[in-house]
Amino acid sequence: MIKKEKDIYILGIETSCDETAASIVRNGRTVLSNVVSTQIEIHMKYGGVVPEIASRKHVESIIPVIDCALNEANINKNDIDAIAVTYGPGLVGALLVGVSAAKAMAFALKKPLIGVNHIEGHIAANYISHQDLEPPFVCLVVSGGHSHIVHVKGYRDFEILGRTRDDAAGEAFDKIARILGIGYPGGPQIDKRAVIGKNLIKFPEVHFNDETFDFSFSGVKTSVMNYVNREKQKGQEIDINDVCASFQNAVTNVLVENTFKAAQTRNVDTVVIAGGVAANQGLRQKMEQSGIKRGIKVFYPPILLCTDNAVMIGAAGYYELISGVYQKGLELNAVPGLKIGVR
Ligand code: KG4
Ligand code: ZN
């Protein structure tokens, strides 16, 4: 166990998908810099992330982004205590860029190298925005690639209570936006339109009749697709804003209901949301209202820390470092299918 006699500065690095990001985080809770170079504009014209292009862009951006994070934090690279990097889950070529850069720096500077799970990073974003938040709590992690309900028993102790059986929540938002022709990434577009639209169309809300708190979003996706095609065939004009409001309502109802049910079984007094979809205004509101009704505290990060960033990696990396038992040294490799809680 490393004793905390002085402040600990961590360089966080994130390249799992289409954001090249680096940060300096002090003691796992204070942000000294947060640099994100996004590739969204580049992938927009393809309607989704093209892995090969993502890797190439990470190669171009990684060194300037790390330099920028060190400069903004006004810290010399020799003064950082450890380097934390996302090593999974994600796109293998994209992950490898961050992992290789982190390894090279750790070797040259003789600093510890810590592999961080991207999803655990999303959860840790909440430690930055809510300084008093500590486990245990139940967290809904919803992003473009993952949807989980996690019982966070300790900083490094996770039990998965529910997961998607098909599409991730963010993936469903992105696919529906594509069907409606309103751009990529779909989540923010649908979110904006849902505020104006009315929740008039009944789309399915899937609940499993078992002891899991799993999700399924393929049914609602097909149902929206069928609705759009049917209306087009009838020559009816589709109110895209109403479709967005109704779709978002169906998805967020299931997310909120399952999360609170799961929280009840674990007797926690706090529910947290994380990941790109946690930026959704409708989801945030519904979570808060449900929390008030049930007497459960609800936390979520600011939008900037919901989507991919390296601050969350610096925060999660800190708890790995102080545990003293983080296992990854210079043999660290990218693990595209990395599971939550696996060490
Ligand atoms: O966490 P993230 O940045 O990347 C992954 O780890 O996947 O999440 C990206 C996902 C995308 O699917 C995007 O459409 C969704 O988060 N997203 C949103 C919103 N902002 C981003 N979904 C719903 N509402 C939003 N406001
Ligand atoms: Zn993410």
Give a verbal description of the structure.
With 343 residues, the protein is α/β, with parallel strands linked by helices. It is 45% helix and 19% strand. It folds into 2 domains: 135 residues, Nucleotidyltransferase, domain 5 (2-Layer Sandwich); 169 residues, 2-Layer Sandwich (Nucleotidyltransferase, domain 5), CATH 3.30.420.40. The strands form 2 sheets. A 5-stranded mixed β-sheet has the order 3-2-1-4-5, sandwiched between helices. A 5-stranded mixed β-sheet has the order 8-7-6-9-10, with helices on both faces. The longest helix has 27 residues. It is globular and about 65 Å long. Zinc ion binds next to helix 4.
Number of helices: 11
What compounds are bound to the protein? 5'-O-[(R)-(carboxyoxy)(hydroxy)phosphoryl]adenosine, zinc ion
In terms of DSSP E residues, the strand content is 15-25%
CATH superfamily of the largest domain: ATPase, nucleotide binding domain
Question: What is the SS-derived class?
Answer: alpha/beta
CATH class of the largest domain: Alpha Beta
Rg over CA atoms: 20 Å
Sequence of secondary-structure elements: EEEHHEHEHEEEHHHHEHEHH
Helix proportion: 40-55%
Q: Mean of the pLDDT scores?
A: 95
Low-confidence stretches are none
Number-wise, the strands total: 10
Order of neighbouring strands in the sheet with most strands: 3-2-1-4-5
**What gap, in angstroms, lies between the N and C termini?**
17 Å
Biggest sheet overview: 5 strands, mixed
